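Example 3.2
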Amino acid sequence: MPASQHSNKKISGWLAVNKPPGISSTSVVNLAKRVFKSKKAGHAGTLDKPASGLLAIAFGEATKTIPFITDSFKGYRFVVNLGASTDTDDATGTIIDQTGIIPSEQQILEGLEEFKGVILQTPPRYSSVKIDGQRAYQLAVKGKEVEIKPRPLTVRRLEFKGWVSENQIELEMDCGKGGYVRAIARDLGANLGCLAHVDNLTRLWSGPFDISDSLPFAKLTETTPDTQLLDWLLPLELGFHTLPEITCSLSQANGIRNGMPASFPDSLIKDNSEVWVSWNNCAIAWGHIVDHVFNPKRIILQD
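Structure, written as tokens:
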């Protein structure tokens, strides 16, 4: 059914959008919010304005599951420009130093090994990291020197895909929450002694969402009455993809919806685990299991 015929229906679910470069993640969310006539919307992980690729947007009750997608692993494809560094660690910045050195493929392959597993990564100066209540990029724009502390990052995969040109290589990376691709390029270039920065960054997937199944951004700008954008809406339950599911009875569902705990004596789920509870294939709530008792933390109110 066309989205225009759903103006009175509360929208709850996920939308995977293929964001083009040159537009902010917030702008994409605001546009999707208007198109789907949703009162509440948010995304699960910012893509920088120059970056493209998968942006996962939650509507309505699905916004309550955003933290689980934000915490999920994500996959990226990107180009690294070798031989120069920029003030933003990407191609939109100003070149601040250059060497002209281009390492061999073998040196690059060996260098990539240092960035696999659990590493310590210092976010870029131009990032959204908060320092004394202000974003790092806000301080950087003012020319202030800031100290950003390194933080642990899990890199599950970092793969060399080939040469793009004589001074450009293409890489793919799967990493956990809080990873900065720009920092990977910056630090790889520093370690190899050649300097480097990122170009053409694309997010390929995020948690259960994949770019191959995402809505082309251009479709969000189409306003023809027969545009069936609701066909692209995904179940909010996908937000719980990392959590164990417990199914409940109708009477348990009614109690949980009122904030009451529910007993699941046959549950084999590890004590103190986060879980989500469903009835009739619909999410009711998520919370914790303690001594086989489910204690709801957030109630999911679906029509």
